[in-house]
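Supplementary Note 2. Why include the ligand at all?

Several targets in our set were suspected to adopt different conformations when bound, so apo predictions alone were not considered sufficient. For every target with a known small-molecule partner we therefore ran a joint prediction. The input for N-oxalylglycine is given below.
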Amino acid sequence: MEVIATKRLSESLGAEVLDIDRDRLLSDDALPGACLEALDVNGVLLFRGLHLDDATQVAFCKRLGEVVSVASHPIPEITVISLDPKNPLADYFRGAFEWHLDGSMDDIPSKASLLTAHVIDEEGGDTEFASTYAAYENLSEDDKQRCQSVRVVHTFEASQRRMHPDPTPEQLADWRARPSKEHPLVWEHETGRRSLVLGVTASHVVGMDLEEGRDLLDDLLARATAPSQVFRHVWSVGDTVIWDNRGVLHRACPYEATSPREMHRTTLVGEEAIK
Ligand code: OGA
Ligand code: MN
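The joint prediction is reproduced in C-alpha cell form.
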C-alpha cells in the first residue's frame, strides 16, 4: 500500500494529501520520504484542516530537512506573514503579490516553504502556484535551444519597481545599493530535471538589448503562469501547504493591508545552487 494517498488539484500541479492527522506527521517514519517524493512529482502539497500549532509545524518540517531559523518570533523557525503595520516585515511581504521564487537573490534558494493559515482574508488572499519545470518542458525545441545559454540579472530594484513605479531618488539609491545576482535562465538540477528561473526579481538579460531581454522574460513568465498552468489555493483556516521552491513560482492574490490575514511559515534550507 502507498504510504500516502493524494488527489490531483489541477491539470498542471498541486495535490491534496488525504487522511493525514497531526500524530502521523510526527510519528510515521515513512511519511517524510513519501511527502518529499510527492512534492517532487506535484510541486505543491495541500493538507486540509490540520490546524498545526507552531511547534508541530516546526517538528514536522525538521523531519523533512534542515529548517531556516529567522529568530523574528519566539519560535525562531516561524515567520509570521501579515501586512499588519506592526509587523516589521510587512513592506517586504508586499513583494509576495508578484510571481516569485523565495530567495531568488540568494546563492542557494530555499528548497521548500510551508504555510499554515491562522487567519484568512474574507475576500482575497488566495495563493497561486505555477511550475517552472513545466514552463521549461512546454517550450518548443527551438525555444529550449534559445534559452539554454541565456543569463539573467536579478535585482532588488526590479522587484520593488512593481510596487513603487515612481521611486524617489532615495529609494532608487537604496535599491541599487543592494547586490544583484546573475543566474542562468535554465536551471539544470542535480536530478537532471530542468526549470526556468523567472519571477519578479528578473531584471534584464546579459548581453541583450534591454527591451528585447525584458520582452523575452515577460513572454516566458506569461506562458509559465497562463491560467491553465496555475493552481490557486483558496485557504480555509487550518490548511497547510508546502511548495517545492526550486521548481514552483508563487504569489499571493491581492488583499488589503488592513486585513487580519495571518500565515505562519517555515522554510527548508536549500541544497543546490542555481546552475
Ligand atoms: C511566502 C509567500 C504568499 C502568501 O510566504 O513566501 O510568498 O500567499 N506567501 O502569503
Ligand atoms: Mn514567497
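The pocket of N-oxalylglycine (ligand 1) is lined by residues 81, 96, 102, 113, 115, 127, 250, 252, 263, 265 (CB under 6 Å). The longest strand covers residues 112-119. Comparable summaries for the other entries are listed in the accompanying table.
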